[in-house]
Design a protein that fits this description.
single chain, 491 residues, alpha/beta, Arc Repressor Mutant, subunit A, Aspartate Aminotransferase, domain 1, Aspartate Aminotransferase, domain 2, 3 domains, 8-stranded mixed sheet, 16 helices, 18 strands, globular, binds pyridoxal-5'-phosphate
Length: 491
């Protein structure tokens, strides 16, 4: 991981991890430059550069004539407030914006904060490559055989073992392997809804969910969501009581784009509410392994006693995005879901299934997750402090307990689409807030993904977004902000 990072950066990451884990407490003195250099066998200048990097990230601060100390948490900007979407469901018509943004987010000529994708240097590509080569050597005969059924037994068992870490005891026989988490979610929705049905989800929500709803002709009921504590269960209960909700689709851990995580007690309550209301919960656990605290990694599914929770996951964000494998345990809908899956896309490539099973079973996997969490935590700290320094007064930003997505609420006068265009003129890609709602809300919000490449050019670009937002705020006419969402032209 970070194999080609400069030595000072690797050292800075190591110290950042000690700070994040509490080994080095806030306010505590860190070793002198000389001691640090001796302890790690590096030159004095490398040790100084590492401390400078940590200082830039506001993780440590220099005190005159006393040395360096662990700083208080990076400067706090206020967080956004609980969202207030309309209480009626809506048909979904996303337009072309999300597809355009995603295309740009992966354009190598852009500095991208547009996607929620981790960059390849965050993964141990060599470990993945070796597993694929091993699978190709040992199981080459599988290429000449049609894969059938719900996925290779070995991977289903590996997923069941992995789910123990999410607090879930799953029967491997009831796990269905899919092509991705999104395929799992699509199958769940197809199993429990008909066109025209109402699906409740967080607001804002991942645009990929809205695209699925649109394709399946389902209506979105956006539920108020707190930026740290997630979907409001009181509002969801009200929706159950007053509307024909046919399914809930939620990301209880590190939701996209808010990065919210439901508190532990609320997880049990959500499982109970869905059981009592007899409404299936489609739980997306894609990001659970990125949560910093153990109790936030525990899935709602672990509280499911009667099979009302359909749990969906993949390893796109933690092991290797390119393996394209997901999984689902669909509770009481296991049999219809397995039939739907077989009729939709059959099985997956057995060889990659076996490579993934091999990777999941390796002793280093947990350690790799820990390292991934620490690296992105340091990065999120740095990004938040850059936002605090360079974005216009009145900006709010989330402080997610893990993951690499920040949701930034700009002052109301700043239109996110205008900001998107201004950034694009400088080949910087951001994701405007309206992509994350079926109701054209969040016009002055943007999602910034900081899990991609992270270089000095990215740090400068992040500052530049703040400057451009400031300029838009100053130029904004004195009228009710963003009454209409401007059309996007990315030409
Ligand atoms: C909440 C959520 N679920 C699912 C996905 C897609 O996962 P996969 O690549 O396994 O389909 C994403 C991707 O950003 C996501 O944010």
């Amino acid at each position: 991981m970070q194999a080609d990072a400069p030595l000072y950066q690797t050292l800075a990451d190591t110290i950042a991890r000690s700070i994040r884990s509490g080994t080095l407490a806030r306010g505590e003195r860190v070793p002198s430059v000389r001691t640090l250099a001796r302890q790690h066998g590096v030159s004095l200048s490398t040790a100084v550069l590492a401390y400078r990097r940590l200082e830039d990230a506001r993780l440590i601060e220099a005190r005159p004539r006393s040395g360096w100390f662990v700083a208080a948490r990076p400067p706090a900007l206020p967080e956004p407030e609980t969202t207030q979407p309309p209480s009626q469901s809506q048909a979904v018509d996303l337009g072309a914006l999300a597809a355009q943004v995603m295309q740009l987010a992966h354009d190598p000529t852009c500095i991208s904060f547009g996607a929620a994708c981790p960059s390849s240097d965050l993964f141990d590509g060599e470990r993945v490559r070796r597993a694929v080569v091993r699978a190709a050597q040992r199981h080459r005969h599988t290429l000449a055989e049609y894969p059938s059924g719900p996925g290779h037994e070995t991977l289903r068992r590996a997923v069941a073992r992995h789910a123990l870490g999410l607090g879930c005891t799953l029967d491997a026989q009831r796990i269905v392997i899919t092509n991705s988490c999104l395929e799992s979610i699509t199958l769940c929705l197809r199993a429990v809804t008909q066109p025209g049905d109402v699906v409740a989800l967080e607001s804002p929500t991942y645009f990929g969910f809205l695209e699925i709803l649109q394709n399946l002709h389902l209506r979105a009921l956006e539920i108020p969501t707190h930026p740290r504590h997630g979907i409001s269960l009181d509002a969801l209960q009200l929706a159950f009581d007053t509307q024909p909700v046919k399914a809930v689709l939620a990301v209880p851990t590190l939701s996209n784009p808010l990065g919210a995580s439901l508190p532990p007690a609320e997880r049990r309550r959500l499982a109970q509410m869905c059981t009592t209301a007899r409404v299936p919960l489609i739980e997306d656990v894609l990001y659970n392994d990125l949560a910093e605290q153990d109790d936030r990694r525990r899935a709602v599914k672990s509280h499911d006693t009667e099979g009302w929770v359909m749990v969906c996951g993949s390893f796109s964000k933690t092991v290797a995005p390119g393996l394209r494998l997901g999984w689902v345990e669909a509770g009481r809908w296991h049999a219809p879901l397995a039939r739907l899956k077989a009729a939709t896309s059959g099985g997956q490539t057995t060889m990659t299934e076996l490579a993934l099973a091999d990777l999941l079973g390796q002793a280093g996997t947990e350690a790799a997750f820990r390292q991934l969490r620490a690296t992105i935590a340091a990065r999120v700290d740095e990004a938040r402090s850059l936002i605090a320094q360079h974005f216009p007064r009145g900006t709010r930003v989330t402080d997610p307990p893990g993951g690499y997505i920040l949701w930034v609420e700009l002052p109301p006068a700043v239109c996110a689409i205008h900001l998107f265009r201004a950034c694009l003129a400088e080949r910087i890609c951001i994701a405007p807030g309206t992509m994350f709602s079926a109701t054209e809300r969040y016009r002055h919000c943007v999602r910034l993904g900081v899990g991609g490449r992270w270089t000095d050019a990215h740090r400068t670009a992040l500052q530049r977004i703040g400057v451009l937002a400031q300029r838009l705020q100053e130029d904004a006419p004195n009228e009710a902000p963003n009454e209409k969402t401007p059309q996007v032209s990315v030409a």
